Amino acid sequence: MFRSQGARGAQMCSVLAMYDPNAALESGREELMRELSARMRTRGPDGSGYFGSKRYGLAHERLAIMDPEGGKQPIVYEDGAKTYAVCANGEIYNFRKLQAKYGLTAAKTGSDSEVLLQLYKHLGCDFVKELNGIFGFVVIGDDGDHMIAARDHAGIKPLYVGYGENGVMWFASELKAICDQKCERIEEFPAGYYWTPKDGFVKWYNPAWDFDDAVGTKDTSHVRAILEEAILDQTMADVPIGLLLSGGLDSAVVSTVLKPFLEKSGQEYLSFTVGQEGSPDVTAARMMSEFLGTKHHEYLFTSEEACANIENVIYHLETYEPELIRSAIPNYFLAKLTSQHVKVVLTGEGSDELFAGYLYFRDAPSSKHVHNELRRIFGHLHNVNCQRADRMTMAHSLEARVPFLDPRVIDAVMEVDPQYKTIEGEEKPEKHALRALFDGEIPDPVLWRTKAMQCEGVGLNWVDDLQTFCNEQVSDEDYAKAEEIYPINPPQSKEEMYYRRIFEKYYHGMDKFVHVWEGGCRAGGAAWENNQYTRAGVKNVKQLAKGLTGVRGA
């Protein structure tokens, strides 16, 4: 079952590519691919494009951020008898530096995606290692004899691969575009890999910190300068940008660095938050907005509104993982509001996976355990935090950027001695290492606020209402058959079964590769017992209001 997606106001990009070495689907390919690509139109309502040959096709839905007038895709190069084309989703932040570094010929457009064509022709597949950005792309040429598909280092941008009949390979930004195309199997394209017809999947992202014997030895003195550079690099756009201001530490850090840049450039400082009236996030975001002098926008939702939008969220999120769905619901509302004002926003996503921000790190037995757990949850970012951030913003044609996940920032923080990240009571709370870098520049109630996950800070009790609603949708008789109906990752509660039903409605048979946390939550897979979370959520929600006045339910 698929929904019609009409063009809307502001927008972003999607990729759909078919590699057809035997020309099995040459007839009618363009019509088919344009139809399938349109399922992802919320990712790019500014325009559609197609380019193909006997053995391949590329389709694109565009959100115009760089070179709105001239950067239409696919971008095509004619090189004598050979033709090369690129179809890309995302942003390449260092594209101008790479063009200068390699003395590349004058670009035909102002689009950052064009550098992918230039570098592929100049360096071959190794060019991927040079990229600093968020991306999923396909470059193909010479009627399919030369081809590469790739995904960014952390899976910030999505990409799926489908194995069809007669050797056909599909590549798509979202599952909905290809899940009914007679594929023998569909898989998530792994983060930090590229694929070619000759070599298959090749891991190109191999950071020095991601090995069993690796251990950080540095202090944090180098981190701030690198983070500031990443934040400023990610302001690259030919359209206005905004900030998702949750009221938590991470977005407060980004907002603090961003302020002088926006003042210097003369841009209006727009901030956006979501929550229920009186929630910790709304309370803290108002404080931070007043401190910064932003033009602040709020989306205040009710529990009833959250329940009414569960199906919309699951359709766009393309998962049935319960913790992820709960956190995505408020993000869905936030993106809806934000897209009415800007096309691009910066967020604080990714900080917790670098600085050990989650409350269950309180129970970590040693600094070595902390580092190994950060490696584990970083490896899941592509189908947790990044999936939520991308799909909920793209559902409303909005691009989210994540400076904490700049590869330079990741390396800098992961090179820090994990002892700096261990939690030692009130004097050294979670993310103390990051807080200390901005002490005196962010109001103390925000700077030292207790970490709250996405679904927790927006309201202390709304998840209870959500779970009560879900329980009412599933009878005892139906729930008793859960393992029989869903043998893969069987639901462990009526809430989980309700989400699964909706997922199956749109993505039947696609359940096998959906990521589900071991133990039903992020903390469940840690190498130690935790006293903070269960698969139903955080145990003590009142701690999330620490340091804030006026929070309801605290």
Account of the 3D structure:
By secondary structure, the chain is of the alpha+beta class. The protein folds into two domains: 190 residues, Aminohydrolase, N-terminal nucleophile (Ntn) domain (Glutamine Phosphoribosylpyrophosphate, subunit 1, domain 1, 4-Layer Sandwich), CATH 3.60.20.10; 239 residues, Rossmann fold, CATH 3.40.50. 32% of the residues lie in helices and 18% in strands. The chain contains 20 helices and 19 strands. The strands form four sheets. A six-stranded antiparallel beta sheet has the order 2-3-1-9-8-10, covered by helices on one side. The chain has a six-stranded antiparallel beta sheet with strand order 4-5-6-7-11-12, covered by helices on one side. The radius of gyration is 23 Å and the shape is globular. The two termini are 42 Å apart. The N terminus is likely disordered.
Secondary structure topology:
Layout: E1 14-19, H1 29-37, E2 47-53, E3 56-62, E4 75-79, E5 82-92, H2 95-101, H3 114-123, E6 133-141, E7 146-151, E8 160-163, E9 169-172, E10 185-188, E11 193-196, E12 200-203, H4 223-233, E13 241-244, H5 249-265, E14 270-275, H6 280-292, E15 295-300, H7 303-308, H8 310-317, H9 322-338, E16 344-346, H10 352-355, H11 367-378, H12 385-394, E17 399-401, H13 407-414, H14 432-437, H15 444-447, H16 454-457, H17 462-473, H18 476-480, H19 482-485, H20 494-506, E18 533-534, E19 537-538
Parallel strand pairs: 13-14, 13-16, 14-15, 16-17
Antiparallel strand pairs: 1-3, 1-9, 2-3, 4-5, 5-6, 6-7, 7-11, 8-9, 8-10, 11-12, 18-19
Helix pairs in contact: 4-13, 8-9, 8-20, 9-12, 17-20
Pathway: Amino-acid biosynthesis
Catalytic activity: L-aspartate + L-glutamine + ATP + H2O = L-asparagine + L-glutamate + AMP + diphosphate + H(+)
InterPro entries: Asn_synth_AEB, Asn_synthase, Asn_Synthetase, AsnB_N, GATase_2_dom, Ntn_hydrolases_N, Rossmann-like_a/b/a_fold
